[in-house]
Design goal:
The protein is of the alpha/beta class and 189 residues long. It has a domain of 131 residues: Oxidized Rhodanese, domain 1. The protein contains five helices and nine strands. The strands form three sheets. It has a five-stranded parallel beta sheet with strand order 4-1-9-5-6, sandwiched between helices. The protein has a two-stranded antiparallel sheet with strand order 2-3. A two-stranded antiparallel ribbon has the order 7-8. Strand 7 and strand 8 form a beta hairpin. The longest helix is centred in the middle third of the chain and has 12 residues. The protein is globular and about 60 Å long.
Length: 189
């Protein structure tokens, strides 16, 4: 089970990506203020970015995603704390794990809340089914250069594949699920 998907709200991305100072401390869990340089915004009056405040987005395309959208494939849906632990592992030098921000680059900018510290931005549209159909070798290049997959004369060897933790904008966002579906299509474990 090398693929993991985070059901994360946009508020959580902003929460994990920014900091400020206020009187009452805001920890990650009781007694833990930061993990691998990741901390929650300390401003008790902070609100989420206006881009994420809409409660009624048209569906499609902004449909709420199921908890296990990849069944019968064995892809774990993880919590925010699992994602923080993955980021901690990456920061600690664990090269078998990778945290991927699957959003398009515009969503990773500071004015949209930034990204999770230690995450690598690999936009979903560079590894989704359309990208795979258009330029499969470009997708294979991402797999071999970044995900630990070996290309054995056109046969992909996933024995050294990294455990990937992908995230996007939340339950209504289909960016990381699109990337995961394409990875499953090509045999990513």
């Amino acid at each position: 089970m090398k693929l993991k998907s985070l059901v994360i709200s946009a508020a959580s991305v902003a929460l994990l990506a920014s900091t400020a100072v206020t009187a009452k401390p805001v920890g990650i869990v009781s007694g833990v203020m930061d993990v691998a340089g990741i901390s929650r915004n300390q401003d008790n009056t902070n609100t989420i970015h206006s881009a994420f405040t809409k409660t009624s987005r048209p569906c499609p395309p902004f449909c709420i995603q199921p908890t296990h959208p990849f069944a019968p494939a064995s892809v774990d849906t993880v919590t925010e704390l699992d994602m923080i632990h993955a980021a901690r592992d990456v920061a600690g030098g664990d090269t078998s794990v990778m945290v991927i921000d699957a959003r398009t680059p515009a969503w990773t900018k500071a004015d949209k809340g930034g990204t999770i510290k230690g995450a690598v931005n690999i936009p979903f549209n560079t590894i989704n089914s359309k990208a795979l159909a258009k330029d499969p070798m470009a997708v294979v290049e991402i797999l071999t250069d970044q995900f630990g997959v070996a290309d054995m004369d056109g046969v992909l060897d996933f024995s050294g594949a990294k455990t990937l933790y992908l995230f996007c904008n939340g339950l209504w966002c289909g960016q990381s699920p699109a990337a995961i579906r394409a990875l499953l299509q090509i045999g990513y474990p």
